[in-house]
Specification:
The chain is of the alpha/beta class and 377 residues long. The protein is built from eleven helices and 14 strands. Belongs to the NADH:flavin oxidoreductase/NADH oxidase family.
Length: 377
């Protein structure tokens, strides 16, 4: 009979006022299935998240906090009534199974395009083209020079995060996670290469962290007892790599010491040299130790984990939970596969970001040869 290969992963974890049934977290994954004018989730999102609700906690795909925040075609938001209504149905589907569901709040800043923003230029700390590519209705297009934000723009954007956070709670999410990596708006403020401001939101480490910390504070005041997390990657600067970069790392280190008890957890994605490169175990550990030395609360480790390495990182005390991204694409029942030591299916990368149900809600659960093994769980 197959035996469980893991144990620590399947102990409960208290987070805010919630007790998670296990320490397996589904990492946020943009899937570009919101093929409607309202950028609102539909029945297929309910099915997709409901299928994956064996995780103790699921973090939603990045949800745009405003119209200006959208970073690609068919990506959902959390700023309109239709979107709140759609997400309410998704949270119902997930809560029926006991898993916690967190809304990831995102603003991509300069990593957008006027074709996604009704003809307006993207917003950013300074007018510096990030030289990236963005998916629009006409395909992958190059980014352009964004409009440097005025202080009014900054204050309105912070208010947009707070409003999206209130919407998350209205829609029944258990809390929110602030996306603070991947060269998006918060990273653009942290990094002196994309932030040349001289007005108190740019300059030294403290000034470059200010936008992030003001967003954290505003969101925290908007969600009552909801869970508040931040997702960082050390510390994505530009393009497809997210490597330790001294200038932005210093800003994040400062922010980590400042967020203190305001945030319930830090979700730390390991470094790697390109979007699909392998994660290196030592780099993962170095990041987690760095986060632990600055932040007292719950740490969720992310980046290329399997059953053994996830168990090991928990046993070593480097993290309190482990999140899995890519493995959840093709394994809706990943927690069960982890518990029973069942093999993992490989995802089809060509259907990762296309609309429709194929490659989204049609991955099967594992079949178990020995019914006694299933009965154990
Ligand atoms: C299809 C896909 C979409 C992703 N979208 C997001 C996103 O919206 N927000 C985010 O913070 N990370 C996103 N990520 C990164 C994952 O959350 C995770 O950090 C990364 O995949 C590494 O974890 P893994 O090795 O377990 O996949 C995405 C990853 C994938 C594969």
């Amino acid at each position: 009979m197959e035996r469980p290969t893991t144990s620590h992963l399947f102990t409960s974890l208290t987070l805010g006022e919630r007790t998670l049934a296990n320490r397996v977290v589904m990492a946020p994954m943009t899937r570009a299935r919101t093929t409607n004018a309202a950028s609102a989730p539909t029945q297929i999102h309910e099915t997709y998240y409901g299928q994956r609700a064996g995780a103790g906690m699921i973090v939603s795909e990045g949800l745009a906090v405003s119209r200006d925040a959208i970073g690609g075609i068919n990506l959902p938001g959390l700023f309109s009534h239709e979107q709140v209504a759609g997400w309410s149905s998704v949270t119902d589907a997930v809560h029926g199974t006991g898993s916690a569901l967190i809304a990831q709040l995102v603003h991509v800043g300069a990593m957008s395009h006027r074709d996604l923003l009704g003809g307006r230029l993207p917003l950013a700390p300074s007018s510096i083209n990030p030289a990236g590519k963005v998916s629009t209705a006409s395909g992958r297009v190059s980014t352009e020079s964004p409009r440097a934000m005025s202080v009014d723009d900054i204050e309105r954007t912070i208010a947009d995060y707070a409003s999206a956070a209130r919407n998350a709670m209205r829609a029944g999410f258990d809390g929110v996670e602030i996306h603070a990596h991947r060269g998006y708006l918060i990273s653009q403020f942290a990094n002196p290469r994309s932030n040349r401001r001289t007005d108190g939101y740019g300059g030294d480490v403290k000034a470059r962290s200010r936008f992030f910390l003001e967003v954290v504070r505003a969101v925290s005041e908007s969600i009552g007892t909801g869970i508040l997390g931040i997702k960082i990657a050390p510390y994505w600067t530009e393009g497809e790599a997210h490597v330790f970069d001294d200038d932005s790392s210093a800003a994040y280190d400062y922010a980590l010491t400042e967020v203190g008890k305001t945030v319930s957890y830090v979700h730390a994605m390991a470094p790697r040299t390109s979007a699909w490169a392998d994660f290196v175990a030592e780099d993962r550990t170095a990041l987690l130790q760095r986060v632990r030395s600055k932040f007292d609360g719950t740490v969720i480790a992310n980046g290329g984990f399997n059953a053994e390495s996830a168990e090991a990182v928990l046993d070593a005390g480097f993290a309190d939970a482990v999140s899995f991204g890519l493995p959840f694409v093709a394994n809706p029942d990943l927690p069960r596969r982890l518990a029973l030591g069942l093999p993992w299916a490989d995802p089809d990368r060509s259907s990762m970001y296309v609309g429709g149900t194929a490659g989204y809600i049609d991955y099967p659960t594992a079949t178990i040869a020995d019914p006694l093994a299933a009965a154990d769980h």
